Amino acid sequence: MSNDNLLKYWDYTRRVRDSGEHIKGLPIHKAGSDVAVVFDENTIVIDGSDTAQEWASNLMFLRFGMKGTHSGFALAAHRFWEEFKHMAVDGKTFIFPCYSRGAGIAQILALKFAEAGCYCNIVSFGSPKVGGKRFREEMAKMCISHVRVEMEGDPVAKLPMWWKHYDTDHVLIANNEKGVACHTKYGEYL
Question: Along the chain (190 residues), what's the average pLDDT of each consecutive run of 10 residues?
Answer without folding.
Answer: 75 72 65 76 80 54 62 86 93 92 92 96 90 90 91 80 80 68 57
